[in-house]
Amino acid sequence: MADDGMLLNFELGDTPLTTQVKFKGGRWRDRVRAQKNVKRGQDSAADDSNRPNKRLRTVDHDGPKTANPNPSSAVWVPSHAMKTGQVTSSLFTSNPTAVTNFDEIPLEESEPAKPSNAPLSSEAESFLSLGLSRRVAQHLANKLEMKAPTAIQKNTIPQLVKEDSDAFLQAETGSGKTLAYLLPIVQRIMALSVNEDGTPKAQKVHRNSGLFAIILAPTRELCKQIAVVLEKLLRCAPWLVSTTVIGGESKHSEKARLRKGVNILIATPGRLTDHLDNTEVLNVGTVRWLVLDEGDRMMEMGFEDDIKTIVGKIRADKLLKENGEGVVLEGVLPSRRVTVLCSATMKMNVQKLGEISLEDAVHITASKSDMEDDGAKGSSEAAFSAPSQLKQSVIVTPAKLRLVTLIALLKSTFARKGSVMKAIIFISCADSVDFHFDLLKSPILLETDKDDDAKPNIHIQGTVAPACYISSPANPKVLLHKLHGSLAQPVRTATLHSFTDCKEPAVLITTDISSRGLDVPAVELVVEYDPAFAVADHVHRIGRTARAGRPGKAVLFLLPGCEEGYKSILSGAPLAQRYESILEKGFATPITSLPSTSAEGATLESEKQSWTSRAEALQLHFEQRLLAKPASGANADEETPKKKGAWAKGGKGGKGKDNIKPPDDPLLVSARQGFRSHIRAYATHVREERGYFDLTQLHLGHMAKSFGLREAPGGIGGGVMARKVNKSHAGAGKSSGGNHKGGDDDDDAGGAVDEAARKRMRDKMRSVMNAASEFNLG
């Protein structure tokens, strides 16, 4: 064969050829680490200089950098390494730098701001001057200790007492909107039984005289709260009766109460629609008022169709001028059906709700100059802000330090007796609420309450517990509460009642189910551990404090980077804080009340520890708790035999006991599930604000540290539906029997089962999302 003249010239260089070493077996992390070590050795050998290998360093914020004490060793294990031989990464290294310039932040005002939602001066205004009867005014002053109205009450009560037109109420949180529409309704219904001079009329209305008002609220908790306020108000008119019909309770008992008679009904839209369709004793012919409280929230939760149905059925029924007992309603009650829409914000969905329910409405705000004859005209420019006396701050915290910063904030909050009595922590999803409650609660549950004679409430056994880590010598007992929409209704009611009536320092870990309308006394701190899904929800969250003129504080956690721009669109100009100052203040003293159930968690303190070492020790303690084996006990003994067979069969070539996998700690399972749900919820911010919360810029490994995890677990994109469908499909396959591969009939049956499972899951998810909107996707 002739030579074609082609020459190949390869430049091999002066370095010797090295063979590629491939490692097999063991964990993939060990193989990657070994591969890097081999490569590092080859690069060092190829270098002409004889410089030594780079020494591993650790950072101590309170002192100089310390080098590897043993440079000749291949792997240096730092002092905070676990007993298992694993090494934890430092909390204070590899963190992103904050964009905010903290040096340019102005100092806080020396003089506190004047409260914007406080009651007016009793000398200038009184309830009696607004058109209320002397009986009602004296009851407010003597029994409810309310001497003067707020601004929104001053502008609303005369309008609803004297006029019969629809109204749109808009005011900041904690300004008294509930009493603003309840007082005129009760005043005009009482006028059917009592004359203006206070003397009783010949005919007095009672519970069977008819239903005069319906109040709709988006959540069960808000319905319960409105019912409590109305019950206190109706003590001046004991012949009038109110009740609630909400989801999660017995329809049979609700029908029995409606059959006995009710004058004012408080309901959720879904349950009221059900009763209008199926309860014959519910007669709306005498209804004069329809109140839609938190209208924007109802639209967001998907109640638009229910509201259309309710409004349509009430308007379709003939308006009765006298009831069945012959009591004349005309001239005392409104001559038409009056709709009152209450909303703190003025978004497009609220305007759509106004088009559905309002006719020639009057726009009423706290400022008299803002009132307009048409609620839709110019309403898009109406701004809603937080109370002026509310102090807002933003803590820019790296993802790895979120958990220890939260502990430090709460620990410093309850460091002084009487400084803060109650705090609310808002978290994005129910699974994350469960994890943080389980992590922060004490393993010794209510030991001091064993001697009490009172019968314990079984509904709060899993939702109320003493807290650890955040207590102090001044407040040795801090009660921890959790609340979200996945809990049963009796549990939700009992937990909220326990938090409201608690006389000791208390913390409520909750979702957005507690962000609307709830008025819990003595709430002085609101912590948004996870930012709200919209700015409007943020305003409602922080509105749980600084109510009725009282002071309050709100703290928002943000990550460095794009999230820092979020504070520019918030009202009130919140001040930015360094997370280092929070940690230094919270961990200035040793951490007390740690759980002593394990040897690793028994001792975390030393006499000369700095705040950085305390933070790292606490983070290490959390990780050790999650990785610890489940405690031997009744639960572990019951669970092991059930799953033993599955563990023995798992893996390749499983052979009985040699391949049995021990169960994971329940706290570890809760942490993984909470992390997955948190990441899914992070992707659900509204479109306008999604630029501040970019999922692609979220470091999953660092965020996993805030859940006490060493690495981010998988299955984030699986979701509920995928797991449910796979489970049903597996069940269908097992039911087909034996080793039969299945033909067309089996495929059809499996497809039918899968489709039915998908439909059930879609209906369930739709009901859950519409009822609570908490992104409980876990």
Automatic annotation (TrEMBL):
Matching Pfam families: CTE_SPB4, DEAD, Helicase_C
Helicase C-terminal domain boundaries: 389-595
Give residue spans, biased composition: Basic and acidic residues.
655-664
So what EC number does this one have?
3.6.4.13
Q: Which CDD domains match?
A: DEADc_DDX31, SF2_C_DEAD
Cross-referenced InterPro entries = DEAD/DEAH_box_helicase_dom, Helicase_ATP-bd, Helicase_C-like, P-loop_NTPase, SPB4-like_CTE
Could you provide one GO biological process annotation from this protein's UniProt record? Answer: rRNA processing
Q: Where is this region: Disordered?
A: 30-78, 630-666, 727-778
Xref: Gene3D superfamilies: P-loop containing nucleotide triphosphate hydrolases
Report a single Gene Ontology molecular function.
ATP binding
Q: Give me the Gene Ontology terms describing cellular component.
A: nucleolus
Q: Where is the Helicase ATP-binding domain?
A: 158-364
Which EC class does it fall in?
hydrolase
- Which UniProt keywords are listed? ATP-binding, Helicase, Hydrolase, Nucleotide-binding, Nucleus, Ribosome biogenesis, RNA-binding, rRNA processing
Entry annotated with the keyword Transmembrane helix: no
> What does the UniProt entry say about where the protein is found?
Nucleus, Nucleolus
- State the domain notes: The Q motif is unique to and characteristic of the DEAD box family of RNA helicases and controls ATP binding and hydrolysis.
Instruction: Kindly provide the name given to this protein in its UniProt entry.
Output: ATP-dependent RNA helicase
Q: Which organism is it from?
A: Rhypophila decipiens
Q: What is the lineage of its organism?
A: Eukaryota, Fungi, Dikarya, Ascomycota, Pezizomycotina
